[in-house]
Amino acid sequence: MTSWKVNQLEKQPVLRNPIFIEGLPGIGNVGKVAVDFIIEKLEAKELYEFFSYTMPHSVFVNEENLVELPSIKVYYVKLAKNDLLLLTGDVQPTDEVSSYDFSEKILDIVETFKCKEIVTLGGIGLGEIPKKPKVYATANNSNIVKRYKKLGSFNENLYGVVGPIVGVTGLLLGLADKRKIGAISFLAETYGHPMYLGVKGAREILKILEKRFELGINMNEIDKEIDQLESDLLKRTKDISDVSKQTAIKKLKGKLGGEGIDYIG
Amino acid sequence: MTSWKVNQLEKQPVLRNPIFIEGLPGIGNVGKVAVDFIIEKLEAKELYEFFSYTMPHSVFVNEENLVELPSIKVYYVKLAKNDLLLLTGDVQPTDEVSSYDFSEKILDIVETFKCKEIVTLGGIGLGEIPKKPKVYATANNSNIVKRYKKLGSFNENLYGVVGPIVGVTGLLLGLADKRKIGAISFLAETYGHPMYLGVKGAREILKILEKRFELGINMNEIDKEIDQLESDLLKRTKDISDVSKQTAIKKLKGKLGGEGIDYIG
Amino acid sequence: MTSWKVNQLEKQPVLRNPIFIEGLPGIGNVGKVAVDFIIEKLEAKELYEFFSYTMPHSVFVNEENLVELPSIKVYYVKLAKNDLLLLTGDVQPTDEVSSYDFSEKILDIVETFKCKEIVTLGGIGLGEIPKKPKVYATANNSNIVKRYKKLGSFNENLYGVVGPIVGVTGLLLGLADKRKIGAISFLAETYGHPMYLGVKGAREILKILEKRFELGINMNEIDKEIDQLESDLLKRTKDISDVSKQTAIKKLKGKLGGEGIDYIG
Amino acid sequence: MTSWKVNQLEKQPVLRNPIFIEGLPGIGNVGKVAVDFIIEKLEAKELYEFFSYTMPHSVFVNEENLVELPSIKVYYVKLAKNDLLLLTGDVQPTDEVSSYDFSEKILDIVETFKCKEIVTLGGIGLGEIPKKPKVYATANNSNIVKRYKKLGSFNENLYGVVGPIVGVTGLLLGLADKRKIGAISFLAETYGHPMYLGVKGAREILKILEKRFELGINMNEIDKEIDQLESDLLKRTKDISDVSKQTAIKKLKGKLGGEGIDYIG
C-alpha cells in the first residue's frame, strides 16, 4: 500500500562492507551538501531512483534551463575500506505516512546489501551563523557511537539540546533499530535561516566521515571551495531583500544542490 | 485509483497535427486569461469535462445569478496549421496526489490525439506591476525551445530567476518527458497581488502563440480590449480596501474568467 | 468508499410534497439558527443521524454537563402545505472529499422522499453588524427563483457580491442540478466575527420561509425572543477580550445551538 | 482499515474490577504527568504498545542520548481495590480519522478486560499560572459523576466554561457511551503556555484518584517532589527567550515525560 516506486537504474552491484549514508534536504541542507560533495568528488554512480505522487507537485528549472521532476536517488561508490550507498535528493517526504513508508523502502535496500551501518546527516538550526559549527551525534545503540568516539570531533550529549529529529534523518535510526541495524546520526550546527546554506557545518561532518571511511577526499581542496562559497554567501545574505542578490544566492545554492522556494503556476 | 472522472461531451473529433495548450488558474491567472481568449475568439468547442471530489467543495455564482460547480474543461478548435486542444478551468488540483493524477489524465488525452507538442502557460509574480512584462520559456528538451527561438520574443534563461514551477503548468512538462512528449512552458511577468489579473502578461504570451500557430486572432483588437480592461483595473486597484471597488474588480475578473475568493456557508 | 454512515432513528415516515431545508453551521451560524428555530417551534422529529471519522475528533459539553459526540441530524415535520425534512448539526464536513460525499448522501435522501425542492441557508459575512440584514438568493435554475419572487423580500443579484459559496450550502445546489433537482440558497447578511451569532439574519430568512411554506410560526413571538438575544449579544460583544463575558456569549450561543471553539486535551 | 497496530508486550494478565485511565499529552501535559506518576510510583508493567504511520515522523533523543520512535503504551498494575490499566505516550493521534480509530482500539481493550469505568485526564489552558488549580469533571452519564461526588474536590459545571474537548481525552467518553461504558474526564486548570508543565493541576487530579482508587501513593512525598519541580520551572519560565534556560526546562520536562518541540532534519 506504499505510495513509493523504486526504479533500479543499473545492474545490481556487488558491494563490500557497505555503509548507507543519508543526506536529504533539511535545515541548512547540511546533510545534502555533505553527501552531494561525496557523490561529486568520488564520482558515485546512480543506482536507484524514487518516485511518489506524494512528492511536491512541481518541477525545478536546471542549469540548462530545462525542467526536472523532483528527484530522490541512491548512488553507490566502491572504496578501499567500505563501499558506500549514498542517498540524496531535491526533496524529502513531507507527510507522516509518506515519510515512514519511504524510510522502510530505504531499510529494505539496506538489508538487501547487508549494510553494516547507517549514517544519517542533518543540521541544528541556531539563531545566528555559527563561527565554528559543533557536530552532535546520536544513535540507536551505544555501540555504534563508541566506534566513532576515537575520531573525537563530536559531542554525544544531544539530550536536552534538541527536541525531536524530524523526517527521514530521524526515522531511519528509529526504524532501523526494529530491524536490529545500527544507525548513527551526525547533526551539525548551522544558521536556521531558510536562505542559508550550511556549508561550514557540512565540512565538519565530512571531516568525521573522511576519518572513518577513508574517502580519499582532499579536505584542503574542499576547504578552499567551501571558503569561497561561504564568503560569497555571507556578502549576499547581508541584504536578502534585494531580489538580484537573492537570485545570486539561488544560483550559488543551485550549484550546491540547494533550491529556493518560489511559486509560479 | 485516481480520483478524477473524465466526461466526454461530444463525439471524438479528428484532429490534424494537434497541439495541447494548458491555461489553468495560477499567479495573475495569466495562463487562464490567454487560453480563455483563444477559446472565445476562435469559438472552440467543449470536448472533455473533469470532475473530482478533491476539487474545492464550493460553487460559483455566475452572471445569470445561478450556481455552478467548479469546472475544468478541454476545448478543441480546428485551424489551418495545427488543430488545438485547450485546457482551462475555474480551479486547478491543489494537493500533490490529485495534481499528479490529473496531469497523467491529461497526458492520456495528449497521447490519444497524438499531439505534437504541449504548451503550458503561467505567470511569474513580481513585487510591482510590470510596465512591459517579459516572457520566459522553459521546456523538457532543448529542441522544442529551438522551434520557438525564431519567434524571438522570449527569454530562455529561467534558471536562477524562479524556484519550482508549481502545479499542472510544471508537472505536465516533467511527466510528458517520461512519455517522450515535447513540452514547453511560457511564463509571463505579472504583479503578484491576489486581486491582480495579468492581462498584459497574457497578451505577450498570445503574441508568441499567434506567430507560432497562426491563430488568426486580430491582435490589435485584443490589444484594445486589454488596454481598456487594464486601465479599468488600474483605477480600481488603487484602493482595494473599498468594497464596492472590489466588487467592480470581481465583475471585471468574472468576465475574464477570474474569480474572487470569498467564503460563505 | 464513502466515510459517512447514516443511522435511521425511526420508521420511514410518509411525507407529502416534501421540501428539504439545510441549516448546518457556517458564517454567523445563520442557517443553523433558522433551522433550529423551525425544529424547536414545530417539534420536528429526529429521522436520520450521520457519523464519520472525518468529523472533528472532539466532544461537546452540553447543558447537563455531559459530553456529546458531534452530531448531524435530519428531522422531519408534517405540515398542511409541504412536509419538511430539516438538516442541522454541530458541525459540517470540512475537507473536500468528505463534503462532496456527505452532500451526495443527502441527495440520496432527497431522492428517496421525492422532495420537490431543496432550500439551503447561510450567511454573508460583513465587516460590521448590519442594522437591517439583506437576504440574497441564488439557485441551480431560474424557475425555482421565480417561485419565490412574489415573496419579494430578497435580492437575486448575487453575482459579484460574493465569491464561492463554500461547503454543503453551496454543494447541494451544484450536485442537485446534476440529478435534475431544483435547489435554492438564501444567504443573509451578518457580522463576520467568529463570536457573532447571526440571529437577525436568520429572522429575515425565516420570514421568507414562513410565507412560502406556511410554517405557522408566530413571527412576532420569535421577533421578541430574537430581539432579547440580539440585545444581550450586543452588550457582550463590546468587550470580547473579557473571559467572563465570552463565557456568557458561549452560554447564549449554546442555547441557540452555536458553539465556541476552545481546545482542551 | 485502521492504521493502528497493537503489539502485546506480555502475557494477558487477569485483572480484578479494572479501571482504564488515560493520560496522553495535551494542554500542560496535565493528564500525562498524572498517569506517568502513577506508573512510576506503583511500578506498573507495560502491556500494549501502539504504532501507526500517522504518528509524527520523528524520533526523540532520550537521557542515554539514544533515539526512540514516538511511543504510546498501556501499562497495568494490580491494586487492592481496583486493578488499573494506564494509557500514556509521547504523542497522541493528531488527525481526525486517526484519533477516532485509535480511540476505538482502546475501547476494544476496555471491553476485553471488562473495565468498570474509564477515566480520562486533561488540562484547561488559562491565560496565567493558576495558584490553586480547580478541577472540573464531565462524563458520558450522570451516574458516574455521582460516584465521585462524595470525593467533593471538583466542579461539575463545565458547560459554558470550555468549548469542545479535543482528542482522545474527549473521544473516549463519547465513543464509550455508544458501547454503554461509563466514562468520566477530569480536567485541571493549568497555564496555557506551550513550555509550561501542569504539575500542580496533575497533583489536584491525583488527589481525587487517590481517594477513589486507594492507590497507596504518598501524596506528601509527591507534593514535595512537585513543589521542587514547580519552583524550578517558575524560576526558568521567567525568561523563556534564554536558550540555556529553555534547555534546562526541556531536561526537567524530559524527566516528567514532556518534550519540547524543535525541528531538525
Question: Main interface pair?
Answer: A-B, 32 and 47 residues
- By helix and strand content of chain A, what is the structural category? alpha/beta
Number of helices of chain A: 7
How many domain regions of chain A? 1
Mean pLDDT of chain A: 86
The order of strands across the largest sheet of chain A is 1-3-6-7-2-8-11-9
Largest sheet of chain A: 8 strands, mixed
CATH architecture of chain A: 3-Layer(aba) Sandwich
Shape of chain A, please?
globular
What's the SSE pattern of chain A? EEHEEEEEHEEHEHEHHH
Parts with pLDDT < 50 across at least 5 consecutive residues of chain A: 236-265
**Which oligomeric form is depicted?**
homotetramer
Text of the CATH class of chain A: Alpha Beta
Beta-strand segment tally of chain A: 11
Rg of chain A (CA only): 18 Å
State the CATH topology of chain A: Rossmann fold
Beta percentage of chain A is: 15-25%
Give the helices and strands, then pairings.
4 copies of one chain form a homotetramer.
Chain A lengths: L4 E4 L10 E4 L7 H12 L3 E7 L6 E4 L5 E2 L3 E6 L6 E6 L6 H17 L4 E10 L8 E5 L2 H8 L15 E2 L1 H11 L4 E9 L7 H15 L5 H19 L5 H14 L9
Parallel strand pairs in A: 2-7, 2-8, 8-11
Antiparallel strand pairs in A: 1-3, 3-6, 4-5, 6-7, 9-11
Helix pairs in contact in A: 1-5, 2-4, 5-6, 6-7
What would your notes on this structure say?
- Four copies of one chain form a homotetramer.
- Helix content of chain A is 36%, strand content 22%.
- Chain A is an alpha/beta fold and 265 residues long.
- The first copy, chain A, has one domain: Rossmann fold (3-Layer(aba) Sandwich).
- The first copy, chain A, has an eight-stranded mixed β-sheet with strand order 1-3-6-7-2-8-11-9, with helices on both faces. In chain A, strands 4-5 form a two-stranded antiparallel sheet.
- In chain A, β4 (58-61) and β5 form a beta hairpin.
- Chain A starts with a strand and ends in a 9-residue tail after the last helix.
- At the B-C interface, β4, β5 and α7 of B face α2, β8, β10 and α4 of C.
- β10 (165-166) of chain A pairs antiparallel with β4 (58-61) of chain D, so a sheet runs across the interface.
